[in-house]
Amino acid sequence: MGNAGAPAEGEKNDGFGLEGIRKITVAGAGTMGHSMAQRFAQYGYEVTLWNHRQPTLDRAREAIARDTQNLVDQGDLSAAERDALLARIAYTTEDSAFEGCDLLVENIVENLDAKLAFYREASPLVPAGAIIATNTSGLSINKLATAVTGPERFLGMHWFNPPALIPLIEIIRNDATRDDVAQAVFDLSLAIGKKPALVQRDVPGFAANRIQLAVLREACDLVSRGVISVDGIDAVMKYGLGFRWAVLGPLETADFGGLDTFDHIAEYLVPDLCDSHDVPALLHRHYEAGELGVKTGRGFHDYSGDKAALATSERDRKLLAVYHALYGEKDRTSE
Question: Which of 13, 161, 169, 331 has the most CB atoms around its CB within 10 Å?
């Protein structure tokens, strides 16, 4: 089951297509990078995990060993499957990792200058017939493409945290991205059990973060005006909109509700929605106070003491339960 995605050894790579992807290099071995490497390996791909710091690679190796052992303990992988998965991942600090890959997925620090410098050095080493993808949550794909040798083979591949639990991958084209490159990465995402969405044009924030920030802006505005509490806003999303949106997207929701109904609601409600172009004041006050959320022990909510660990564990438990409920039989490679 776990190796169904990878093509058989010896199949010819004729242009850009899923059948040409066998060897994948993941650049950057932090939380997202090592999770990607594990995911690709679970589905039979030969993976090289690259990082310029050996200690980061050592931590990644330990994390993958721990995570895969958890899968064995839970009965989601056999010991033999775990061993085969681990054997498909190599670790290196050497730039030779870029020379033999069919796909390079870059996942280094989320900084434009750092990524541009990386592509100027690494992309000339990547074979001409290989695809290059960046995991970024919002940096311009067009700007990054200016540093890539062969921008037509370059695109965004935006994974969501926690990557083992969130099915979505946004695939973002730059202005030069070939159709078959976008299709190959779309097909690869399906092959590793993900749910891809193709973003046809590079705009700030792509699709998911634009929608997320639009919701956050309205939520902060309602709380700031005393319309509803922080807990109330989260309840509205968790038990209402978010609960429904896990099954139906916003446009499907409108179809079910009736476009005539939504048109009438939009007529009177849209003019009253928050349209500020500034960072929400409520959000910025927490930022200025150093209250950054789970990682600092306080944000919109209190995460002091053991509350952060408990909240994270509960989040992951519920996400996994939702995944299994929505997408059928338990996916042994999704944890």
Answer: 169
Q: What are the φ/ψ torsions at residue 270 (nearest 5 degrees)?
A: -55, -45
Q: Is-same-fold flag (18-199; 208-304)?
A: no
In CATH terms, is domain 18-199 a member of 2.60.120.280? no
Question: Residue 19 corresponds to which tokens in the numbers above?
Answer: 């059948």
Residue with tokens 């446009």: 251
Helix axes 208-224, 281-288, angle to 10 degrees: 90
Unique residue bearing structure tokens 């850009």: 16
- CATH says 208-304 is which class? mainly alpha
pLDDT averaged over 10-residue windows placed end to end, the chain, 335 residues: 46 72 98 95 98 97 93 88 97 97 98 98 97 97 99 98 92 98 98 97 97 98 99 98 96 98 98 98 98 98 97 92 80 42
> Helix or strand or coil: residue 278?
coil
Nearest Cα neighbor of 152 from 172, 132, 176 is 176
Number of residues written out for the chain: 335
Q: What are the domain boundaries of the chain? A: 18-199, 208-304
Structural tokens at position 13: 């790579």
Is the torsion defined by CA of 136, 141, 147, 149 positive or negative? positive
Q: What is the C-alpha to C-alpha distance for residues 146 and 201, in angstroms, rounded to an integer? A: 16
- Residue 65 in tokens: 């060993």
